[in-house]
């Protein structure tokens, strides 16, 4: 499935060099990795909230089986709270032309947007260890004005991480959800395109274009229409750039 990830280019405040987070992002692109964030680093304080539903009917079912209802409820809540502390979420979107997201997540179009072709089965490693693709869940985010409901009998605890307030629906979000935050490795070739923001600095363009060339991805530069509030994208000539600077050697000089 084609999905997009908006990214900013950050700098260290003391000397204006690239920040460790941006350099990490570059290494991730080169190493076929994506970062799954913990809930506390996401930008919505309502992440992971929930309410217990169908309590009475669930209690009756447990009572008939001679199972302690309070213990089951406490266990479920404890499991969910543990997942809230440890789970990892990769947020992506189906829209690479959303002006709000270009503004919010790329520092006013000074950053970039990544295009991936991803499915849960593409994730093959976590922190350099092999994993089963079943470790990663994939959910289309649902938008609602009320908290998600879960029964004490429902074993799909990750479902609560697939809900957000309706005010976020412009993001058209899809999520990969796993039990742990951190670096996840995906198959080679999942990165398809890098879209450069209209205000992306030329030096930053050279770095991202060089990474794209090494990874066999395409690059497009965002431009503003002269008569409407929309973006269009022009292709970047990576072959010409490579003839001038040798992208492979340039990248190796920075990250090896």
Protein traits:
30% helix; alpha+beta; 16 strands; 256 residues; four-stranded antiparallel β-sheet; five-stranded mixed β-sheet
Number of domains: 1
Question: Would you tell me the overall average pLDDT?
Answer: 85
Total beta strands: 16
Sheet with the most strands, sense and barrel status: 5 strands, mixed
Provide the low-confidence segments as ranges: 55-60
Secondary structure tally, helices: 7
Encode the helix/strand succession as letters: EHEEHHEHEEEEEEEEEEHEEHH
Overall spatial form:
globular
Helix fraction bin: 25-40%
Structural class: alpha+beta
- Rounded to the nearest angstrom, the radius of gyration is 21 Å
What distance separates the N and C termini?
A: 32 Å
Q: How are the strands of the biggest sheet laid out side by side?
A: 1-5-14-15-16
Question: β content, as a range?
Answer: 25-35%
How would you describe the overall organization of this protein?
This protein has 256 residues and is an alpha+beta fold. It has one domain. It is 30% helix and 28% strand. The chain has 7 helices and 16 strands. It has a 5-stranded mixed beta sheet with strand order 1-5-14-15-16. α5 crosses α6 (238-245), α5 packs across α7 (247-255) and α6 (238-245) crosses α7 (247-255). The chain is globular, with a radius of gyration of 21 Å. It starts with a strand and ends with a helix. The model is unreliable at 55-60 (pLDDT under 50).
Task: Describe the structure concisely for a colleague.
With 256 residues, the chain is an alpha+beta fold. It is 30% helix and 28% strand. The chain has one domain (2-255).
């Amino acid at each position: 499935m084609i999905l997009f990830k908006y990214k900013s280019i950050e700098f260290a405040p003391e000397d204006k060099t690239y920040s460790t987070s941006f350099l990490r992002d570059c290494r991730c692109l080169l190493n076929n990795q994506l970062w799954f964030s913990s809930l506390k680093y996401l930008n919505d304080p309502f992440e992971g909230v929930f309410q217990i539903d169908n309590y009475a009917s669930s209690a009756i079912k447990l009572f008939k089986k001679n199972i302690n209802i309070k213990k089951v409820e406490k266990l479920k809540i404890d499991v969910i709270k543990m997942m809230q502390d440890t789970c990892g979420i990769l947020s992506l979107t189906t829209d690479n032309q959303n002006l709000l997201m270009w503004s919010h997540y790329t520092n006013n179009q000074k950053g970039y947007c990544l295009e991936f072709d991803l499915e849960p089965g593409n994730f093959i490693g976590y922190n350099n260890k092999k994993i089963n693709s079943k470790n990663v869940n994939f959910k289309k985010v649902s938008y609602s004005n009320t908290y998600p409901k879960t029964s004490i009998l429902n074993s799909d605890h990750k479902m609560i991480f697939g809900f957000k307030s309706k005010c976020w629906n412009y993001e058209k979000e899809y999520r990969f959800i796993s039990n742990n935050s951190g670096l996840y490795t995906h198959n080679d070739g999942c990165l398809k395109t890098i879209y450069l923001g209209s205000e992306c600095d030329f030096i930053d363009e050279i770095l991202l274009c060089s990474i794209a060339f090494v990874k066999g991805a395409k690059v497009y530069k965002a431009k503003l229409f002269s008569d409407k509030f929309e973006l269009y994208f022009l292709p970047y000539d990576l072959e010409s750039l490579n003839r001038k600077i040798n992208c492979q050697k340039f990248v190796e000089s920075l990250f090896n």
